Amino acid sequence: MLLAEIISVGTELLFGEIVDTNAAFLARELGERGVILHRKTVLGDNLGRVSQAISLALSRADLVILGGGLGPTDDDLTRESIADALGETPTEDPDLLAWLEGLYAVRGREMPQVNRKQTWLIPSAEALPNPVGTAPGWFVRTGGKFIVALPGPPREMHRMWREQVLPRLPLPDHALVSTTIHTQGIGESNVAELLAGLTQNANPSVATYARKTGVDVRVAASAETEAGARELMAPLLDTVRAHLSHWTWGEDGQTLAGALGAGLAGRTLGVIEAGSAGALCGLLADAAGFLDAAVTQDHARLITLGLTPVTLRDAGLVSEGAALELAAGAREHLGADIGLAVVVGVTGESAGQVYAAICSEKGHKAASVNWPGDSAQLRERAAVTALALAYRALRAGGELA
Question: Which regions form coiled coils (predicted)?
Answer without folding.
Answer: none
